[in-house]
Amino acid sequence: MNTRLLEKYRKEIIPAVQEKFGIKNAMAVPCLEKIVVNMGVGEAVNDVKAVESAAMDLAMITGQKPIMRKARIAISNFKLKIGVPVGCKVTLRKAKMYEFMDRLFNAALPRIRDFNGIPKKAFDKEGNFTMGLREQTIFPEVELDKIHHAQGMDITFVFNHGPKEHTFEVLRLFGMPFSK
Q1: Strand, coil or helix: what is 21?
Q2: What predicted TM-score, i.e. pTM, was given to this entire model?
Q3: Rg (CA), the chain
Q4: Which of 85, 91, 28, 9 lies closest to 51 in space, CA to CA?
Q5: How far, in Å, CA of 24 to CA of 146, rounded?
Q6: Cβ-count burial of 36 within 10 angstroms (0-12 exposed, 13-18 middle, 19+ buried)?
Q7: Among 104, 130, 152, 175, which residue's Cβ finds the most Cβ atoms within 10 Å?
Q8: Which domains does the chain have, with CATH numbers?
Q9: What is the pLDDT of residues 157-176, one digit of tens each?
Q10: 60-86 tens-digit pLDDT
């Protein structure tokens, strides 16, 4: 179990954020609650195996079994019916969350060709951060010869509270490679 980032949060990040923003109570520093990894599979309308393939890749990347997401409404232009699987998602908490974040920052993101950093604009008003990846092949766990098609994913970092300036600083200190 890799708790290196949890130790870093407790010993380095909390004091640094407290000092930078003048926060007196350590419990007022934003804390990462969960990471949600979501794969929407557009090809699932024509090929149900595409969702199963994406779910296997997501399970390999995160180390946790994904939940299948089904269509809630029917859209005739996309030939979409209610109840058809259209994607999968995983919610990571505690040790698995920190382990995934460590692999994302130190193994996966450096493998992106012409990588200039992650844009800073993707914070919502609650201070949560969402980033998108174009394909799952940047993760070392995914075997390239077993990929049926490249699949993108959304990764959301959910914090318990705090303005986006505070949560930005926490992610920056964790090692998130933001663009200059």
Answers
A1: helix
A2: 0.88
A3: 18
A4: 85
A5: 51
A6: middle
A7: 104
A8: 4-43+54-69+87-174 (3.30.1440.10)
A9: 999 988 989 999 999 999 99
A10: 999 999 998 888 888 888 888 888 888
